[in-house]
Amino acid sequence: MNHEGAVVPDELEVLQACLGTHVQSLLELGCGRARLARQWMAQAHGRSYLGLDLDERAMARNAQEPVQGMRFELACATQVPADADSFDAAMMLKSLHHVPVAQMDQALQEVWRVLKPGGLLYVSEPVYAGALNEIVRLYNDEGVVRAAAQAALDRLPRQGKWREGEAVRFTQPVHFADFAAFKTRMLQPTFMDLDIDESLMGRIALAFAPHCDDDGADFTRPMLVRVFEKWQET
């Protein structure tokens, strides 16, 4: 699978290529609105899914839009409400870096516990680079936590419990109709409250303006996917 440098509008293409067709039960940690999971569930009958998140507003909306085979629970990544060896695969989409750094290793160990032998862990994280990142870091600089997330993944193969597969790099197109759309999507997330005063909002608007014209603003977000297999207990 070669997506190196490719623009991939829908990550479902990458997810399906990495997980294959044998995965029938999927756990998602930090699921939010579970957009990608809903697409994955629609690809085949008989699949099952458990989505976990601490975002009460997103989880309330998920409960209002039920899909057969999909369950959602308000829970954190370090305490998965499931038995050992329960899932064929687990995924974290731009969520590992939101786990407190001191708890990242514990969360990944918990994923190992609930995966079946040979189960896959799919972790998709934004790369700390690009024009959009330069704007976002004005109000939410994630450089430290994103580096910590990759360091936690680097440690997995050394534990003797995981085998790492091929890393996949691609870019995602991101479009905003105008600055108002950017504010709604990027400055008002349901999972956190951002402390943005008038002065900072002005700086963000100034950084955004050169990228926006009558057709809106278009960015590409570089992404890195890493896949690990649960393969041996020590």
Spell out the blueprint of helices and strands.
Blueprint: H1 12-19, E1 25-29, H2 35-42, E2 48-53, H3 56-64, E3 70-74, E4 87-93, H4 104-114, E5 115-126, H5 131-136, H6 143-155, E6 162-164, E7 168-176, H7 179-187, H8 198-208, E8 212-213, E9 216-230
Q: Encode the helix/strand succession as letters.
A: HEHEHEEHEHHEEHHEE
Shape: globular
**What is the terminal separation in angstroms?**
31 Å
In terms of DSSP E residues, the strand content is: 25-35%
Q: Rg from C-alpha positions?
A: 18 Å
| Weakly predicted, low-confidence segments | none
SS content category:
alpha/beta
Assembly type: single chain
Q: Could you describe the largest sheet, including whether it forms a barrel?
A: 9 strands, mixed
Written overview of the protein:
The chain has 234 residues and is an alpha/beta fold. It has eight helices and nine strands.
Quick overview of this protein structure:
The protein has 234 residues and is of the alpha/beta class.
Features:
nine-stranded mixed β-sheet, 9 strands, 234 residues, 8 helices
